[in-house]
Amino acid sequence: MTLSELSQSTAAQFAKTYGHPPRWIVAAPGRVNIIGEHTDYNDGFVLPMAIERYTVMAAAPSAGAAPRVQLRSTETNGEAVVIYLSKPMQPFTKGAWVNYPSGVLAGFMARGITPGGFDALIHSTVPLGGGLSSSAALEVATATLLETITGQKLDLVEKALLCQKAEHQYAGVPCGIMDQFISVMGRKDHLLLLDCRSRRTELVPMSDPSVSLLVTNTNVKHALTGGEYAKRRAQCEAGAKALGVASLRDATLATLEQGRGRMEDVVFRRARHVIGEIERTTQAAREIQASHWKAAGELMYASHYSLRDDYEVSCVELDAVVEIARGIGLEGGVYGCRMTGGGFGGCTVALVKTEAVAAITKKLAEDYHRKTGIEASQFVSRPADGAMVLKA
After folding, report:
1. Is 40 a catalytic residue?
2. Set 43, 119, 179, 310: catalytic member
3. What is the 3-state secondary structure (H, E, C) of the chain?
């Protein structure tokens, strides 16, 4: 479904739900990270792109004297959640989807920007739980809707940081800045090179229609014990401390080798991944800008193997997709493939020849099912625009 068709469909569902057409419609995309994994909390670089999968919000002013916001999502069969604007804002039950938009609303109201009462319907084509940032798409769509209703636009960085804060404080998820930044700032036919320390962004052109990104959802998410993410973050901090630097962003592979004797082997390997991944990410941006697809693909493979062996956040299913892709190879139209997201399941991203997409998806799906017994979900995307207003 095109974005225009998605907008029309959401408007029709809104009218069916509320009995009148919406006044405003906005959309914000999900994202896939091309390369740069577990580098964000080490002050490193990431290279995401907005995908052609969106969260759309349709809304109209609400009737009644008491100012309130009524939110409905097609994911929950349109069950209404009501927020009374005259009452102090606070999170809902832990894990509730409404914490994402309500946290954004709270951020606007804390700035003195109050929208007045409205009814909204949310519909999303960003896969849930696949590591493609459906949460950030919902937050950024909410922020874009509030800007549209109030006529008060935020600075792009402020908007992204407000959405990140909503996820921290209302959803209880200590996410980095990548997801919100790319959903706000994405641009068609461009990737976004983001410096997670300075928050400086650089648009990296990827306008060649002969290449596309193929996302494969393994449809597994392994339950973890022992706080694996927190453990790795602590190991990175231990590595930086042993090297005498503020963060692993400030280290090189040469200084890491020199300091190997001052840290445990597992800390050394975690640091080796991060330092190498930061280098790979900036190099990949340059290779993509120059349309050096083979070189960019090799960096993606190197990223995956580092995540698998040094950072230990891959899993059998992710490895299976990458190895199938590597087997298809350049002759079959695959330049490179890697896991994307936090790991232990979720999605892979592959850089592929557009003309070979149909054959590649068929081969990947069949071989993955043969190896794992699981049906994968797949879609292809070109770099998309960030948040936008579809009707004002």
Report:
1. no
2. 179
3. CCHHHHHHHHHHHHHHHHCCCCCEEEEEEEEEEEECCCCHHHCCEEEEEEEEEEEEEEEEECCCCCCEEEEEEHHHCCCCEEEECCCCCCCCCCCCCCHHHHHHHHHHHHCCCCCCCEEEEEEECCCCCCCCCHHHHHHHHHHHHHHHHHCCCCCHHHHHHHHHHHHHHCCCCCCCCHHHHHHHHCCCCEEEEEECCCCCEEEEECCCCCEEEEEEEEEEECCCCCCHHHHHHHHHHHHHHHHCCCCHHHCCHHHHHHCHHHCCHHHHHHHHHHHHHHHHHHHHHHHHHCCCHHHHHHHHHHHHHHHHHCCCCCCHHHHHHHHHHHHHHHHHCEEEEEEECCCCEEEEEEEEEHHHHHHHHHHHHHHHHHHHCCCCEEEEECCCCCCEEEEC
